[in-house]
Specification:
Elements (H helix, E strand, L loop, with lengths): L5 H42 L1 H14 L5 E7 L5 E7 L6 H4 L5 H10 L10 H8 L7 H7 L3 E3 L16 H4 L5 E3 L12 H14 L2 H16 L6
Parallel strand pairs: 3-4
Antiparallel strand pairs: 1-2
Helix pairs in contact: 1-6
Length: about 230
């Protein structure tokens, strides 16, 4: 068995201390983040009740169908979670995909969305442009399915677009807003979106989360280039 000299021992000791410090800071960060998520989602659900009612009435008056839309998305470690949103599309939206033109099908396959989606209702367009359709996800945050800040939750068919970064992407909870959503949003390519998600995962901390939240408010009331 090879014995370590004094210099090697010091290096190993510093390495262990650094690793323990990182783990401790990460645990503190996760605890504070979860605590803030619970408080903010609870307050949000209570304060926004009047807005929920107004949106619900508008959706029912605009088109037939349910008020809320539920879709399977990938959560932490690839767990399937139900993400809640206000319905912004007609009730036969999935069937309409078969009637897309070849150009539309190609755009949808590449980005999992259309720039001018014919399935979106009138009130749905407004809700998407203002991101108000995302408000029901406050319930997802309260349940612990997602965070306020994190990579956008994706459907299973999108995971292959992350390539070798797929496992890393699933290593943290998705969020209702994030680094990508506030830095280009729909104007960015999926490749750039992946890079931004990886940047956030590598550099996430409370200060960055707070900056993203404030920037989200700016995007909502300024740049209308929403999802």
């Amino acid at each position: 068995m090879k014995l370590l000299n004094e210099e090697q021992i010091q290096k190993e000791s510093k390495k262990n201390v650094a690793e323990e410090s990182f783990i401790y800071k990460r645990r503190v960060y996760c605890f504070i983040k979860r605590l803030l998520d619970i408080i903010c989602s609870l307050v949000g659900l209570i304060v926004l009740i009047p807005i929920f009612l107004i949106i619900a009435i508008a959706i029912k008056l605009d088109s037939k169908g349910p008020i809320f839309f539920k879709q399977k998305r990938l959560g932490l470690r690839g767990k399937n979670i139900n993400i809640y949103k206000f319905r912004t599309m007609v009730i036969n939206a999935e069937e309409m995909i078969n009637n897309f033109s070849e150009e539309q099908k190609k755009e949808y396959e590449e980005n999992f969305k259309l720039k001018n989606d014919p399935r979106i209702t009138k009130i749905g367009k407004f809700l998407r442009n203002t991101s108000l359709d995302e408000l029901p996800q406050l319930l997802n945050i309260l349940k612990g399915d997602i965070n306020i800040v994190g990579p956008r939750p994706i459907v299973n068919d999108e995971l292959h677009l992350y390539g070798s970064y797929a496992k890393k992407f699933l290593s943290i909870k998705p969020g209702i807003t994030g680094y990508w959503q506030t830095n280009g949003r729909s104007s960015t390519s999926y490749e750039d979106r992946v890079k931004m998600d990886m940047y956030y995962i590598d550099n996430r901390n409370l200060l960055l989360d707070i900056k993203i939240i404030f920037k989200t408010v700016g995007v909502l009331f300024g740049d209308k280039n929403a999802m």
